[in-house]
Amino acid sequence: MPDGIESFARDYIVAQIAAWELGDFSGLEALEHPDVVFSNINGTVFDGRDAHFAAIECIKAGFGNVPIKQQWRYLMGSGAMFTLAYEWTIATSPQPMVMAGLLVGRVEDGRLVEEWGAIYTVGS
Asked: By CB count within 10 A, which of 34, 102, 103, 108 is most buried?
C-alpha cells in the first residue's frame, strides 16, 4: 500500500502525462500550489503553476507539437519529498528523439510547492 508521499507522486505522474500528452492541465492544477517554484539543472527557474503550464505548451510547440510519449517511474519518497525518473520519446522526424530525466518534488499541505529537475537527450 503506497504511503502518502508515494500516492501523491503517483497522482502527479498521471497529471503530468495528461498535461503533456492530452493537453489536460486539471490534474496539475489540483496538485500544484499556485506559487510552486521549478528549478532545472540548466539554470531555468520559473515561478508559479501558470508558468509551468506555459512552459509545457512552449516546449511542445518548440518540437512542432508532435506527440511526446512519456514513461514515468516512482523511485522513492520520504516525508514531504519524492523522486521520479522519466523518459520522453518525441516523435521528431526523421527519427524520434529520446530524453531522460529526474524530478525531485517537495509537498506542503497536499500540494507541490517546489520541484527540481534535470533532463538530458539520450538518443535520436
From this structure: 103
